[in-house]
Amino acid sequence: MEGNRRWVSGDLHHPDRDPNRRQLVAQEQEPFGAILSCIDSRVPPELLFDTGLGNLYVMRTGGATVDPVVTGSVEYGPMTSGTPLVVVLGHQRCGAVKAAYESLREGKPLPGNLQAIAKALQPAYAQAHRGGGADPVDTMARAQVTLTATDLRANKDLAPLVKKGTLAVVGAYYSLDTGKVEVLTGAPA
Prior knowledge:
With about 190 residues, the chain is of the alpha/beta class. The protein has helices at about 1-10, 20-25, 45-50, 70-80, 95-105, 115-120, 120-130, 135-155, 160-165, and strands at about 35, 55-60, 85-90, 170-175, 180-185.
């Protein structure tokens, strides 16, 4: 979050982005966090958290959706090297969430494998539909973050680490307008 404050203010440090760092992490890595975010080109986790080489594991999928391969990728850091933080990061004006919302609302499947994204977002759609709100797509994006973070905290392999206090699974939301990341759920005490 300190890196995000630098991103918002424009006082960037660009840490760990030089040949010395590249040499240091060439043999092994110990990222302090794993970020599951959307594929959106406007939401690059390394930049919006002002981090560098070897700081983050980053997984990106449409709408920050998950399947077994993505879940395994999220589990990798905490389970193999003790990465203490997982962040599920949604964002404002998500195109994948908007497409899924419209598809589900209208009952018209998306083309090709895009339908898999819509299917994965059905629980968030249902929650957003029940909850209402001025912007149902935004409500759905936030619901997706909260549902995914909750599911990861309850994951059979991650839950013991969360219970032990060695892993935090945080749901967060990025504002395209301000650059600020807002923690929605799971902030460590």
